[in-house]
Amino acid sequence: MDTFAALNSILVKLFNDILNIEEKALITEEFKDISVTDMHIIEAIGIAEPRTMSMISKSLGVTMGTLTTGINGLVRKGYVVRNRSDRDRRIVYASLTEKGIAAYHHHMKFHKSMIDSIMQDLSEDEAVVLNKTFNRLETFFGQWTDKH
């Protein structure tokens, strides 16, 4: 198999596996009422300071309408709270509840395990090359998205 075919095969399988495995790893008995998409919204909100809805939608690359729908479900399920700015009532902040913070940590634990597994036997030079490769892939996806 030539290099192109090998890389293509690996990437296609990897993307499909990531989606399937992430769903199985993240949606446990404790978090069975949310989806992987919900987990990504929780991740985008984060555990630092509250984030505005526009910051979250931009980081996820979704419309405000799509984000609002997702946030509404997470508020209803007790993972997220929304608050309006005292200075400008048009600005809405989202932050995680204790339940949301637990889901956030659960999600980060999965990602840490995944990265630890990848990095386990890499030399520093190999890690640099891998990082460079993933940055190129991210750039490609960003450029492709901008064009389409």
UniProtKB/TrEMBL annotation:
<keyword id="KW-0804">Transcription</keyword>
<keyword id="KW-0805">Transcription regulation</keyword>
<dbReference type="InterPro" id="IPR036390">
    <property type="entry name" value="WH_DNA-bd_sf"/>
</dbReference>
<dbReference type="InterPro" id="IPR000835">
    <property type="entry name" value="HTH_MarR-typ"/>
</dbReference>
<feature type="domain" description="HTH marR-type">
    <location>
        <begin position="1"/>
        <end position="139"/>
    </location>
</feature>
<dbReference type="Pfam" id="PF12802">
    <property type="entry name" value="MarR_2"/>
</dbReference>
<protein>
    <submittedName>
        <fullName>MarR family transcriptional regulator</fullName>
    </submittedName>
</protein>
<keyword id="KW-0238">DNA-binding</keyword>
<dbReference type="InterPro" id="IPR036388">
    <property type="entry name" value="WH-like_DNA-bd_sf"/>
</dbReference>
